[in-house]
Specification:
Blueprint lengths: L22 E2 L3 E2 L1 H10 L4 E6 L4 H11 L9 E6 H4 L8 H6 L2 H7 L4 E3 L4 E3 L4 H9 L4 E9 L7 E5 L5 E6 L12 E11 L1 H12 L8 H9 L5 E5 L11 E3 L3 H10 L24 E3 L2 E2 L5 E2 L2 E3 L4 E2 L2 E3 L2 E2 L4 E2 L4 E3 L2 E2 L4 E2 L4 E3 L1 E3 L4 E2 L4 E2 L15 E3 L14
Parallel strand pairs: 3-4, 7-11, 16-19, 17-20, 18-21, 19-22, 20-23, 21-24, 22-25, 23-26, 24-27, 25-28
Antiparallel strand pairs: 1-2, 5-10, 6-12, 7-10, 8-9, 13-16, 14-15
Length: 396
């Protein structure tokens, strides 16, 4: 599992943590989704390659996942860059796996599943592994359809009728040469490799001076037409769990994915007993919604244990340790751990950074400095820097 990403596009939200350790869903972190997918798929031998600001990730994995992984024949180990590649660090996603080939080989596992630890989705990996074996594939890439307009954000595939990959381009500038429709198949960052084949291609790549040592940018495009390369299309976990996968790599994507959890028919529930996902403080409470005069649903929110709410939370996600002052309203927003929001505030369409102190009477809407508000595609990200000129006694 690759869990060393900087998450640079998230800006201040990943100032102190790597992207896989970013809090999500009021009581979880991004990596919990991939780890729960593994455990619920019966995969109990997991190595996590870490690099960028791993402290919060290491603490979380040890506290929440460590006890469940300490059974006979099972393990969950962290493979940090400082010990596996102490001089140069992991030079890319493929290099992170290459540096740990000896540990992978010790398991005698075939095939090998390579996963990203920073996406939000629920997936049973067993059908994909069966698909890979049935086709005697060298590599199988998990894919999902995305809007063609968003193709430049993903690795885009062109498939033959038998699901064999005819072309793979990482974040293409145009879709020239692809079969273009409203939606196109995109890589989910989920790969199944034959163990021997994986070792062979990674050793070749490691000594290439022209390679960036990245699966999507280097390894996979080079294998098209030279190896048995197939795409497994993710269709969900049955009729009640349609295909859903999000790369929450920007503030807008992170904010939208949270609000999608509050839909009347959400893509999945965080407290689904059929797909358990442990949380450090227990799963968040889902408050019931109400129907507004315009027919939309309001009120429905996720609120973590350990938060103190003395105002109104409307269609928002509130993390642990948050304090909301009397008379304040938070709507269509994500409030990260430890944030303090004063009295008589109104925040709409915001992400409040962890530990941020929002002064009394603060109003964040479309008129505030021309920045975004609820109903817009871009949230306002609030940090203490936004209120640097406000004296501390003005914060609740």
């Amino acid at each position: 599992m690759l869990a060393g990403g900087k998450g640079e596009r998230l800006g201040v939200l990943t100032r102190d943590v790597c992207k896989p350790a970013l809090p999500f869903g009021a009581a979880f972190r991004n990596i919990d989704f991939t780890l729960s997918n593994c455990v619920n798929s019966g995969i109990r031998r997991i190595g996590i390659a870490t690099q960028h600001k791993p402290d919060a990730l290491l603490s979380h994995v040890d506290a929440v996942w460590g006890p469940a992984a300490r059974r006979g024949g099972e393990f969950l180990e962290v493979w940090p860059a400082e010990s596996r590649a102490p001089i140069v660090g992991y030079r890319g996603t493929a290099d992170a796996v290459f540096r740990n080939l000896d540990l992978i080989g010790q398991q005698g596992s075939d095939p090998v599943l390579v996963l990203a630890g920073d996406h939000v989705y629920q997936m049973d990996y067993r059908p994909m592994l069966e698909f890979h074996r049935a086709r005697n594939a060298d590599v199988t890439i998990g894919c999902i359809e995305v809007p063609a307009a968003d193709a430049s954000q993903f690795g885009i595939l062109s498939l033959d009728d038998d699901a064999r990959i005819a072309r793979f381009v990482e974040k293409p500038r145009t879709l020239e040469g692809f079969r273009v429709a409203d939606r196109v198949p995109a890589s989910m960052g989920i790969y199944v490799f034959g163990a021997a084949f994986l070792a062979q291609v990674l050793r070749q790549d490691a000594f290439s001076s022209e390679s960036r040592h990245d699966f999507g940018g280097d390894i996979l495009p080079r294998l098209v037409g030279r190896a048995a390369l197939y795409a497994y299309t993710f269709t969900g976990r049955g009729d009640d769990h349609p295909a859903y996968w999000r790369d929450v790599g920007t503030p807008a994507a992170y904010w939208r994915a949270h609000l999608e959890l509050l839909d009347v028919a959400p893509p999945f529930r965080l407290d689904d007993a059929t797909w358990p996902m442990p949380a450090a403080g227990g799963p968040p409470a889902l408050t019931p919604g109400y129907r507004r005069a315009d027919g939309s649903i309001g009120g429905r929110s996720l609120i973590a244990d350990g938060s103190a709410i003395d105002g109104l939370v409307d269609r928002s996600v509130v993390f642990q340790g948050v304090r909301l002052g009397r008379g304040s309203i938070v709507e269509s927003s994500v409030v990260l751990p430890g944030a303090v929001i004063g009295r008589n505030c109104r925040l709409s369409g915001a992400i409040v950074d962890g530990g941020c102190r929002v002064p009394d009477e603060t109003v964040i809407d479309a008129a505030w400095s021309g920045r975004a508000a609820a109903g817009r595609d871009e949230p306002v990200v609030l940090t203490n820097a936004d209120f640097a000129s406000v004296p501390l006694h003005a914060c609740a």
